[in-house]
Amino acid sequence: MEAESEILVSTNPPPPLALPPLAPSQSAPPQSDPPQSALPKSALSTLGKRKPCKNASGVWDHFTKTKYEDETSEARCICKYCKKDYACDGKRNGTSTLWHHLRSQCKSSLLRHEKRQKVLSFEGQVKGGNLVAHAFSKERCRIACVKMIIRDELPFSHVEGIGFREFLNEAQPIFDLSSRTTIARDVWDLYQEEKAKIKSVLTHNAQRISLTTDTWTSIQNINYMVLTAHFIDDDWVLHKRILNFCVIPNHKGDTIGRLVEACLNG
Question: What is the pTM of this model?
Fold first, then answer.
């Protein structure tokens, strides 16, 4: 029993040695950071990243911040529509004044027109008629631009002219003018809509229709023919509609008859 107790005592680890206290001039060695492999995944995902901040206010989509001239100058921002400037220091100024400017003061602001504020204008093209409340609509302006190109026989490139764009920017800055390609596509879409309307009117009323043709030759020696329909509606009002405008090989009666038949079937 005594021998066994001696073996047990000898197998115990020796006590740690006590280190002497450090002198005041000495400092403890710096502790190294644990390796990244020892960190949890949640800590690794946020390692080296800034804390997410709040989303920026939507008012800055309508204002442009100006650069500091020096350290003592005040932070300013400029409205993108009317070029009026306001103080915009993040610590001293909020965004309430900027929102109020966009919604109430700026005449060219998009937010001001989103309220569908209407303007009194004369009905029709003749002044002195009835006053109606008119609201701005980008879709109606786009259709009116297409009709202007057709009625005044203007080229599609007219909408890309510098003078026309300057005039439109002064008259209505918030209207985005289309390119010549878009205008050409809108003209074709308008033609298809009007064609469907004419077919619907002629089919629904089933009235008698008189057809007239007119042919001529251009300076380039190209023959053209226009087919026009004349009819009277239920109110005894005479209407005239152009059904087709196409190229014709010659001015002979047989050729005109075949082309009229093809236009009516198309």
Answer: 0.49
